Amino acid sequence: MQRLTVNGVAIDDTFAEAFGMRATAIIITGPNRKWARQAAITMTGFATSVIGCGCEAAIDVELPASETPDGRPGCRVMIFAVSTDELQKQLQNRLGQCVLTSPGSACFAGLNGTADLKLGAALRYFGDGWQVSKKFGGKHFWRVPVMDGEFLCEATTGLTKEAVGGGNLLLVASSNAKALVAAEAAVEAIEKVPGAIMPFPGGIVRSGSKVGGKYKGMMASTNDAFAPTLRGVVKSELGPEDNAVLEIVIDGETSDAVAAAMKAGIAGVTALGPEKGASRISAGNYGGKLGKFHYHLKDLLP
Amino acid sequence: MKLLTFTLRETPPERLDLSQLTPEGLAGLSAKEISEIRLGMSKRGLKVGDIFRVSGSDVKNIVFEGGSSRFDGVGTEMGEGSIRVAGDVGAQAGRKMRGGQLLVEGSAGPHAGSCMRKGRLEVLGDAGDHLGGPLAGELAGMNGGVLIVRGRAGDYAGDRMRRGVAAVLKGCGDYAGARMIAGTLAVTGGVGRVPGYLMRRGSILLDRMPEKLSPSFVECGAPDSVFAAVFDRYLVAEGILKRPLLGSAPGKFGGDNAVAGTGEILFRR
User: Fold this and answer.
1) Does A145 contact B at CB distance below 8 Å?
2) Do B229 and A71 touch (CB under 8 A)?
3) pTM of the full predicted structure?
């Protein structure tokens, strides 16, 4: 069978399988770019996978001062979870512990959705009676006195049920260095796609997983079919030249955002070619039965 | 459909009650029925037809060509559509408004926007005393919406205000924001004596430091304020002001400590 290749990079005839999720977005601003980013990074720390973190979160885009509600530099942060209740809990905890605490921060709604999640409406109690409610221009804000002045926070933000989590690309390379170069190229390309985040460290996962495991209670365990050191002992997906695989996981505000992100990632990786980066692109799925959304790689070629 | 237009024939000989001439008040009425509506407040029994020439039929969008300080209750309880007055109005313009737009191109008398709840009332000229305020016996004044006076307002602007945004651009008299319950009153061009007298909560935003303040207000520092930045942008985006009002770090007086004391007067430093 003739394999599909783009610029020398083999593309597997397979698909990424993804799931419907609940998502929200907020805009965090700060006195300068550094502190807007710091609040956003702190808030999205330990938010790589819903399996162990309760939510998946990352910065969607950085916003220049001209595009934020208060005229200061900011970040749009997206948060994904499996249920509305869990999303509200994670949002509230992370906002209270990471954004409220960050010097000079403010927080605004980042999504017009079907339902509302509480932001300031939950945090206002920190004001201990000195909080101030302000409604103008069709928006509702809470002002909470803090030690460097006031924390301004919009009362609510929107929730979408159209979000998709688990879009992915598996980048197979002949060395670790090449796999990392390819993965970095994919991350750089996907960062430019609005409405899509990559929640893992720097956007990259090295410990891709399969469902379940031999030990009781393990919801996920190592993806042995793509582990190069197990090439000879399990039913491996890897060829004789394949020595490292890295995965990009993508969550999107919509299914279209996930598809656009995967397409951008494939374009970034194939542009490098197999000499500098990945020799092959694959994707992770569970046979197509678990997830509602399927992204076939052959439909997403540059 | 052409705008329903009431053209003033001559200066009315007495005070008129125009509270029925709103989109809701005129809905479903024929031209003849409209001309029969009684406006006069005396035994003379003046009707619409005696005061105005009426043309057009779009009751949702009403125009008064020519105004008078004897036009009382213009736009009372209006909930939708628009009313434009090319001239002055008398007392209680836009009283208890629930929506829509009321534009007064001249000046308004006392109690303009009294107890309004929603919608937008704009006065291009001056306004009298008790802007947005309650009538005697009512517990709360302005309760929502946007109220703009491009000229000067009299005493007690924003009296007992509870919600919404009121803006006065060329200064106002004494006791601005007196007895405020909540809401936001913005004033450029200076306020008279003791602004915020007995205010419980709410914000009075000024383009300069107030000169004569009640002694029960206390100075509360001037840290950077994101609220000021966001509100400044709102005022400009809404077309209320051309330039930011407060700046990024306004000064604050807290009060009135003679009552609850969680109100504030923010001012550009």
Assistant:
1) no
2) yes
3) 0.93
